Description:
Blueprint: E1 2-3, E2 9-10, E3 21-25, H1 30-40, E4 44-49, E5 70-73, H2 81-89, E6 94-97, H3 103-107, H4 111-117, E7 122-127, H5 142-148, H6 168-193, E8 197-202, H7 203-210, H8 212-219, E9 239-243, E10 249-253, H9 257-267, H10 282-293, H11 298-305, E11 312-314, H12 325-330, E12 333-336, E13 339-342, H13 366-372
Parallel strand pairs: 3-4, 3-6, 4-5, 6-7, 7-8
Antiparallel strand pairs: 1-2, 9-10, 10-11, 12-13
Amino acid sequence: MAVTGNGNRDESGPGPLAGLRVVELAGIGPGPFAAMLLADLGADVVRVDRPGGGGLAVDPAYDLTNRGKRSVLVDLKSADGPARVLDLVERADVLVEGFRPGVAERLGVGPADCHARNPRLVYGRMTGWGQQGPLAQTAGHDIAYIAVTGALGMIGNPGEPPAVPANLVGDYAGGSLYLVIGVLAALQHARTTGTGQVVDAAIVDGTAHLTAMIHGMMAAGGWQDRRGANLLDGGCPFYGTYETSDGGYMAVGALEQQFYDTFTELLGIADGAPARKDLARWGELREVVAARFRTRTREEWTAVFEGTDACVAPVLSLREAPHHPHLAARGTFTDFGGITQPAPAPRFSATPSAVTGGPAQPGAHTESVAADWDVPALLPKDV
């Protein structure tokens, strides 16, 4: 527990953001995940949940995107709801919200309302389409956002529908991570100048930004604008996945010549494989590689390639991943509250972070937040 500059306590955890205060207006998807990242790094994140809940039907006890946070209940549509949130904002460094454009303003907790109480506040806005543009007021989910940026169209086999990469590329990579980057950059500016600002993090913007290298390769003539025809999209026979005799899969990424030589030697095809630079024979090379992988199980091939520079690894399931020897040795996953989950990332030499609390139950921390943040108005009238 840390003590803030105004003498109040907070519930910051270990990590480089200890002492930072964040207000999160409850939502779903990328906003909560971004706030979880800030909590993982040590920030005291207070989630403002709505009475009765909302969003996806996930048991709050298992919603890991709310780990390490505290929760208070505030009805923003009640007469005194906005005032309670603004009391928190006055004592905060950051606010994160994921409403459609204009909703926070109508509720009385938009940027102008918040900056009137706290000019140094970094106001982080998380949406799919952004605050402006023809689709800004339109509903959407990850799959639509990544579809229009060209990212979804890159993923999958030629002649087949694009493969859906869960909600990792849009919501979390193009959304949450860019919101956190923006918030941290704006915090630096606020601490230098004393002036906060609004961070408009749109999933379409972040996802498009992720394709920067591909656009460069396409402009240079090194990338075809179609699925399964390129070096990094499964079109290359030595960068892809192959089925094993037991129905498992191995992932191959032997791009450089020296790694490819090791790969073909260990796979047992060094003397019979077509030349890797002969694109016209890539189909033949793929068949040779695939046939060889089907002769052994995933476990057997893992043993063959383990610890070598062949750039080959087994394709593991979510339940298998925490038991991989390398991930286990690094503590990439951790167990907290009976739930196996990813540990905080990245890692810091001087201010290491850790999971310090399970998923925040709605309203469970009203009393502690009211005391630590000196906001007695959060307490029920009869307390």
